[in-house]
Design brief:
mainly alpha, 2 domains, 73% helix
Length: 309
């Protein structure tokens, strides 16, 4: 689930914090914080799926309470069960990896019952829900698409949902866009792969090591990468003192990856860090980082420091 795009973002966030607070935060503490932030990102992935199940179960309890009230009407006695019998949710509940993680970490939204009830009310009033319930029967692909739409168009943009995430972890609001994408991709893959689509924390041991290694290598090689950056800033007539600190951290990390990871093509590294600079720094950062890094890459190739494409 945690792919290298997210790992790079987390490494840069931790490096930014560490370089700013070097006198207050030890290197060991910074690495622990990086590990924790990656674990919490995976927890958010699972927590969103727990929300899907808890919302379904809340609606099931509501329908059951309506059937058993003192004077139930016809609708109470014969409700539309399409939402609570959603085939994707049924398969998710039976996913062993999901169940094991939920049990181990005791994840639930039931403690936030007011939020859960309010969010369910918003769902029941949404066009996505109305359209879904108007169609007869349950179809697995359609049931998967329903939850993709509901997450995209109702839940992920809900202010109360975003506030809930912020109250639970300082990392989660920043993580939501990336993790939300992973959740939507997982549901899409459920259509063809079923429970196998549920993602583990890391694809393999190499990815598990990548974040800590990249962080350590960037810290240890910062002096040399800064020398390279400053050299080409002067070549391009940029004022070294006016470079955004985040841009410098992005370039330090990119240079570290370019030099130390021969299996990763330079174009892949360059594109990833340009996008990170665009999102996390200034509007001009993407173009700026692209220009400086391209010059550095050409220099490293000319000096035979890197030989990859």
């Amino acid at each position: 689930m945690i792919n290298r795009i997210l790992i790079r973002i987390k490494v840069i966030q931790m490096l930014y914090s560490y370089f700013l607070t070097e006198k207050e935060k030890t290197f060991v503490d910074a690495k622990k914080e990086l590990k924790k932030s990656l674990e919490l990102a995976h927890q958010l992935y699972n927590y969103i799926f727990v929300l899907v199940v808890d919302l379904t179960e809340l609606q099931d309890r509501r329908l059951d309470a309506a059937r058993n009230k003192y004077l139930p009407n016809k609708e109470d006695l014969h409700p539309n069960m399409k939402f609570v019998e959603n085939l994707f949710v049924k398969k998710l509940r039976n996913c062993e990896a999901f169940r094991d993680y939920q049990k181990e970490h005791k994840l639930t939204w039931r403690d936030d019952d007011i939020f859960l009830k309010l969010l369910l009310d918003k769902i029941l009033k949404s066009d996505v829900y109305t359209d879904y319930m108007s169609k007869a029967g349950n179809d697995f692909v359609a049931d998967c698409e329903f939850w993709r739409d509901l997450l995209k168009k109702v839940i992920f943009i809900d202010d109360d949902f975003i506030d809930q995430l912020e109250s639970k972890s300082v990392y989660w609001n920043d993580d939501l866009e990336t993790i939300g994408t992973f959740v939507l991709k997982t549901i899409k893959r459920f259509e063809s792969e079923g429970s196998k689509a549920f993602m583990p924390m890391y694809k393999d041991e190499e990815d598990e090591r990548f974040g800590e290694q990249l962080f350590t290598q960037t810290v240890n090689g910062r002096e040399k990468s800064d020398e390279l950056i400053n050299r080409f800033l002067q070549t391009e007539n940029w004022d070294v003192e006016r470079v955004a600190f985040m841009d410098r951290v992005v370039m330090d990390t990119a240079i570290t990856e370019i030099i130390n990871y021969p299996a990763i093509p330079t174009r892949v590294t360059l594109n990833e860090y340009i996008e990170i600079a665009k999102y996390y720094s200034t509007p001009r950062s993407g173009q700026f980082v692209n220009g400086i890094l391209n010059s550095i890459i050409n220099h490293l190739k000319a000096e035979k420091i890197i030989v990859k494409e």
